Amino acid sequence: MKLLSPAQTRALDQATIRAQYTTSTALMERAADAVTNWLLNELLLDYDTEIHVCCGPGNNGGDGLVVARNLHRAGYRVHLWLLPAARHSPDFTHQQQQLPAGLAGQQISPNQLPAIAAGAVVVDALFGTGLSRPLEGAAAALVRHINDSGAMVVAVDMPSGLYADAPQPADCAVVRADFTLSFELPKLAFLLPQNAGFVGDWRLLPIGLDQEVIHNTAVDRFFVTADELRGQLPKRPKFSHKGTFGHALLLAGSKGKMGAAVLATQACLCGGAGLVTTRVPAAGYDILQISAPEAMCLTDPDTDCITELPDLAPYDAVGIGPGLGQHDDTRMVLRQLLETAQVPLVLDADALNLLGAYPDLQNLLPPNSLLTPHPKEFERLVGEPARDDYHRLDQLRDFAGRTRCYCVLKGAYTALAAPDGTLYFNSTGNPGMATGGSGDVLTGLLLALRAHRHLSPLTAALLGLHAHGRAGDLALPHTGHAGLLASDIVRFIGPALEELMG
Ligand SMILES: NC(=O)C1=CN([C@@H]2O[C@H](COP(=O)(O)OP(=O)(O)OC[C@H]3O[C@@H](n4cnc5c(N)ncnc54)[C@H](O)[C@@H]3O)[C@@H](O)[C@H]2O)[C@H](O)CC1
Ligand SMILES: [K+]
Predict the structure, then answer these.
(1) Are the C-beta atoms of residues 338 and 365 closer than 8 Å to each other?
(2) pTM to 2 decimals?
(3) pLDDT (mean) for 229-242
(4) Where does the chain bind K(+) (predicted)?
(5) In this model, does residue 162 exceed pLDDT 90?
(6) Could you tell me the domains of the chain?
(7) CB 291 within 8 Å of CB 220
(8) 181 alpha carbon to ligand 1 midpoint, in Å?
């Protein structure tokens, strides 16, 4: 799915109106009907609940007027509150004229705010994609009042006060919604941790926006759904053999962190690599052979850390990092790998920390390498803390462009930046996956997909990110959030990948 800017969203509305020979009022009614249906069928409003519909002066407010009218007609207890404004949008004015006699909107002011009980539902239709500056005056006062009320808040299209794709100044008034109902496509703001408290759970309501126009709108950021990835993982041909799916080499583990090597190895096996060889320090031999008997184990001469790079000739992809440690000798191995590798690389954990501590190594990164930092590792990699989540995305793009690599930023909606600067956000996963070893599993899985001979770097990365989160989602009913372990994710990699097969 594309993540459109507010200007592109407006253009899409206009193009839909032209292409479908409809009117902006009719489109507004579709949007408002979708919100009304969600409130009735998903939130299961009951007739006793007080519903406060708060409307701003633009089309977001117009949506709110239609929702209020719908609910009032259906017999619900609706209170309608309007912001004072010098100008209203034509569609707002039109909808205001359609209000039934028993539903008069009352104008609020900073010292005349509605009484909202904690058991009430607030429909926030103050501002949507047309927000152009921070809220102040009556709007800011009402937003703070709503936030303090303890009521359930459902935001129409956007939580009011939040920008769709840019950071707002600190201390601005922004609605803290329980649910945000967005039309057709999500907004970039929904995907960033800093906005989680405003957006709440977000849902997409289809309103029949023109698919051809969406298709023709150029964007450089995407929210990647299962529908878009399904079929992208080639089905295994009947006469395939283990050589068909590549031989992966993993360099991982150090004293006390051999489990990371085990998890990444298991994930690489479950990710479908034809063969997996894992290089571990000598002390890891028994551990690895017992816990991952399907993998071959290549021990380093050193007991506790990796000090020598094996011959790379047999391998289709190399992964390095999980539990690796940052010993000087290990750094030399990393350097030698970067200088000599002719096959795809996946770099994680301590390999990334070494790249951060010795930035000259970054100049050696072969193009199309895949790096998988979490935010702290990413900060070490770029050597500068991000001002906010938007700035971090800029840094991610810059890094991918500068190194010509694919760089992941792990989190709730893991982001991937491609060398051309395009951003892809993953749609799967759950908070139970925020647990030790989960990243090692991702590395192993991505390594398997990079060893696959028929996947582009981008497709391999997107499939891996998706399947990793999906495996966590499939494990969740069996484990619960707290009980979800990295090894549970491994167990469900197979079923998650099966869903993506052509
Ligand atoms: N996206 C769709 O498919 C559809 C969207 N709809 C709804 O329309 C809004 C966008 O409406 P628009 O009129 O462009 O913007 P807003 O209602 O968000 O507000 C604009 C209004 O407010 C003024 N303004 C902006 N910022 C401030 C501020 N900080 N303080 C005071 N006033 C402000 C601005 O000048 C305008 O006058 C979208 O979100 C959807 O909810 C359609 O209904 C259907 C299709
Ligand atoms: K809103």
Answers:
(1) yes
(2) 0.96
(3) 88
(4) 60, 124, 160
(5) yes
(6) 6-219 (3.40.50.10260), 235-363+433-500 (3.40.1190.20)
(7) no
(8) 15
Note the residue count of the chain: 502
Ligand 2 centroid–CA 157 distance in Å is 6
* Sheet strand arrangement including 370-371: 221-224, 423-426, 415-417, 406-409, 370-371, 345-347, 317-320, 247-251, 275-280, 296-299
Q: How far apart are CA 149 and CA 118, in angstroms?
A: 6
- Percent above pLDDT 90 for the chain: 96
Question: Which residue type, as a one-letter code, is found at position 371?
Answer: L
Structure tokens at 20: 């479908």
Element (H, E) at 423: strand 423-426
Closest CA to 62 of 153, 134, 117, 130: 130
Distance CA 355, CA 474 (A): 34
Q: Where residue 433 falls among pLDDT bands split at 50, 70, 90?
A: very high
User: In this structure, are strands 345-347 and 317-320 parallel, antiparallel, or unpaired?
Assistant: parallel
- Which residues are CB-contacts of 19 (< 8 A; sequence separation ≥ 6)? 210, 212, 213
Q: Which pair of tokens denotes residue 446?
A: 């991505």
User: Is 242's pLDDT higher than 80?
Assistant: no
**Substitution candidate for ligand 1 out of 14, 29, 60 with most atoms within 8 A of CB:** 60
Q: Which ligand sits closest to the CA of 11?
A: 1
Across the chain, mean pLDDT equals: 96
- Measured at the alpha carbon of residue 451, what is the angle toward residues 454 and 319, in degrees to the nearest 5? 150
Is pLDDT of 500 > 90?
Answer: yes
Which of 105-114, 343-352, 363-372 is predicted with the least confidence, judged by mean pLDDT?
105-114
Q: Would you list the DSSP string of 459-472?
A: HHHHHHHHHHHHHH
Mean pLDDT computed over 460-472:
98
